[in-house]
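for the writeup, i need someone to sanity check this before i put it in the appendix. the sequnce is what the collaborator sent (i think, or maybe the updated version? ugh). structure was predicted straight from it, no edits. if anything looks off just tell me and ill rerun, i have time this weekend
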Amino acid sequence: MRKLLVTALLLVMVVLPASGETLSSMNDLVSYALAHSYSYTRALYDANTAYSSLATDAWYESSSMSLRSDAAVNSTTNGVSATLSVDVPVNDYLTISGNIDTALSGKMSVSINPLAQPESTVEEELAYENASLNLAELKQSISNDVVSAYISYRLAEEELSLTEKQADLAKQEYEFEQELYDLGEVTLIELQEVLDDLSDAQNSVSTGRNSLTTAKRALMQTLGAETAAELTLPVIDLQAFADLATVNEDTDYAASTSVMGTYAVISAVNSEKTAQDTYDTQRLFEPNVSISSNISTSGAITGSVSFSMGFDSFKEDVKADYLDALTLAQQNTLSTISSAQYSLDALIESIAYDKLQIADARRQVEMTQRLIDEAETLYAHDEYDELDLASLKLSAESKELSLMKEILDWYEHQLEIKVYLTT
């Protein structure tokens, strides 16, 4: 078990950059987060523990072999005799035994019990399946959180860059209005309005810087980094993520998803299977048949057949309790499936809403671009103001950023729906 855990951790650390090095891709970010996540490490340990428990319940159990030695002293003859016996249960049905004494007299026996009830390994098998699935879903969840936190961080950078441009433009407009005021061409009230716009733009820059700091801190916490100084974050083109999202634009998630493959549902179903197995393996009667064949060191061969029947009336109450537990487990499965289906339906609705928002944002971008084309034509004939044209271009950047945000929201919802995909 320790070997499996160490091996898995080494596989994670192979792709893990050392502290202080540059993370150059999204894979680096995810690998770093996985290696620094206690919950993931714990889930990895639980999966390996479940595997070890399952592996020790193999059909053969060499560890259950028993070895016994007996010695006796005869006070009359002052003689000493000893016997060495060994029993090797090959499986639940077959046992090989042997014994030999100091006179080299002994025998070997082979016993078969066709009515033996093998110990169930259903609980261990389902526990391993649950642990493995939990590990996979946790990895997907951490990956999604990293992507989401990084997108928020990069969007905060882009938004700050845009607000800084808007503040620079507001400053130019104020300086231009100040010159007009000095020439007596605008009133003080008009100049004050432009100054207010400049103040608002500068406040937006301060807010954007705070938002960027908050987004970076959230990203570092998601990655598990102790300080922001220990990592150099990659600069990944957000447009690439937006383009990636649009690849699945026509996917019919209602037809290609199912709640039956999710961890919550499978865990509930496995709990029901465990309860069913516990109920089924509680027997009021325990029949036992032993068919043995013995061969002694002298060459004599003997055989025997024995039968016994155990009855435990107290198990009636126990079996009734297990039936109640099974009924509760069945109800829990139905409830979990219903809840998961509700969450999936809500997520599909969110994706459908995202598509409407993306379509509207695209129309806004297209309309703004048409306005810019017309404004540039007018500007070429000295019929449009330069600052107004610059403001219109910044408006276009803002609309494009809004479109990207809508697409990236859709992209994050696509990541969330991955656990429901049936393919």
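The beta strands are 66-74, 79-89, 94-101, 106-112, 285-296, 301-311. Confidence is low (pLDDT under 50) at residues 1-19, 59-63.
thx in advance!!
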